[in-house]
Automatic annotation (TrEMBL):
It comes from the Bacteria. It catalyses: UMP + diphosphate = 5-phospho-alpha-D-ribose 1-diphosphate + uracil. InterPro entries: PRTase-like, PRTase_dom, UPRT, UPRTase/APRTase. Its cofactor is Mg(2+). This is Uracil phosphoribosyltransferase. Catalyzes the conversion of uracil and 5-phospho-alpha-D-ribose 1-diphosphate (PRPP) to UMP and diphosphate. Residues 8-210 form the Phosphoribosyltransferase domain. It comes from Aristophania vespae. Pathway: Pyrimidine metabolism; UMP biosynthesis via salvage pathway; UMP from uracil: step 1/1. GO terms for biological process: UMP salvage; uracil salvage. Keywords: Allosteric enzyme, Glycosyltransferase, GTP-binding, Nucleotide-binding, Transferase. GO terms for cellular component: cytoplasm.
Amino acid sequence: MLRNVQIIDHPLVHHKLSFLRDRSLPIVEFRAIVRELSVLLAYEATKELSLKEKRITLPDGTICVAKKLEDDTLCFMPILRAGNALLAGMLDFVPTASVGHIVVQRHHSTLEAQEYYFKAPDKLEKKLCIVLDPMLATGHSAIAAIHRIKKAGVKELIFACLVAAPEGVKALSEAHPDVRIITCSIDEGLDQKSYIVPGLGDAGDRFYGT
Ligand code: URA
């Protein structure tokens, strides 16, 4: 396994993923489990956030020194549309984080990933940016999105997804070796239509009911 890749290998993650893999799971449950797994991804992705000390006065007048997050250190960046599915769980875990958005789509003839929209918070260069997409399939859109986010000055990036294909992990690691990848699973591979096998199907369609 590549050093920049982390799989959350936990019995409850396997258990929850097993429900998501069932294509007949009702949308309400699909959304609920995606949210739960997003919280766990957020927990793993934020493990190294820096802290500052804060003095707190206790009821008896004594002072204790507690640790809290530095201000403005985190930005979630969903790759739309499907990446937005991970946002609610991420914000459940870190409600103070800022949020940017990026849309990349494949050009219909060249099949190259192209940026269509990019909106990011100020001082992006000072933040850890956690890029969100439930599926890392070929890696094309993740690579293009991260390229654009780096151009905006971001130095520290993590890519978080629910399910990855080995092909996508390899492509993303080669294109951006400095970016940590956190995923709940690395599946078998891609089918002829570049869907992940066994995967979750089209995660965006399942999450949005389209
Ligand atoms: N996008 C999806 O939603 N599912 C896949 O399997 C691959 C890309």
